Amino acid sequence: MNSDIVKISISGLPAIFPTGYTDKLNTYLRIIANGTHSETVVTDKAYCTIYDPNFQERTVQNVTYDKYILRIMANEHLRAERIQFAKFGYVTTQDEVTHKMKVLSVNYIKQENTELGTYEIEYADVNPKNYKNQQLPINNYLEQTQIQKEYTTDQLVGLTFAITDFATIPRTFYTELVPDDDVAEPEEENQKINGVEKVTRSVATKLMKARFYLNTEDKNIVARFLPWADVVTLTFSSGTYTALERILPEINPVGVGLFQIDVFLKYEISNYYPENII
After folding, report:
1. Smallest Cα–Cα separation from 232: which of 224, 220, 223, 241?
2. CB atoms within 10 A of CB 93
3. Considering Cα of 214, then 220, then 222, then 223, what sign does the dihedral take?
4. CA-CA-CA-CA torsion for 135, 136, 142, 145, nearest 10 degrees?
5. What pTM value is reported for the model?
6. What domains lie within the chain, and their CATH numbers?
7. Residue 259 · residue 61 · CB < 8 Å
8. What does the pLDDT look like over 75-86, one tens digit per residue?
9. Is pLDDT of 187 > 90?
């Protein structure tokens, strides 16, 4: 069923409207589709991947919404610009489709020699019901379940950990980002000899820095069980590396429903004792 009227409702402006009040606006001007609005998350530094040896920032997630222009004929007293500050804003189109508005811009274009003008409101539709499978159009390029659809597990970088007391472990999680092979800052012991401070012991540690992107369920497994793991290995094209110390993952939310997991796996420790310290 079609309607000649586009209906707009806004609420959630407690300093302007009474609590629970919904302001309603109407227009006879049709909604105009205006491409897409994208929100993109990229890595905070450059990475090479299993398929690309070039170091560059990688796209982690992209949400691509449909974008529209809504026009309302009015004078300046209508104050339609308040729509951009409302907590809730909905548009019912002439085709009876309900858009949930994420307002991107509001412009008022006044007609010369009149008190009338046009409010032009650009917004993204964030109503999941209007997209495929009634879900927001989220593309997770590096999330581990997604990359397993694109590659075989032996092509990917795998983090495997096992816990003696849990039969359901081991578990393996995957990334396409190639880990960084690094050396930690040395840990040293010092002693003063004849008033001069000398290094008596220096510890050099080689480690792999690996990054994973996981959904909430997988993130919770890693957060709970990885610190308890008896055996942790990182496997990719250059070999298998076994952790010598307990691993506490660094976990940070990124984008929508996604978590960045950074793992620092120490796999080789060397002790150096300088001679002739006396």
Report:
1. 241
2. 18
3. positive
4. -10
5. 0.82
6. 6-37+64-139 (2.40.10), 144-272 (no CATH)
7. no
8. 666 677 788 888
9. no
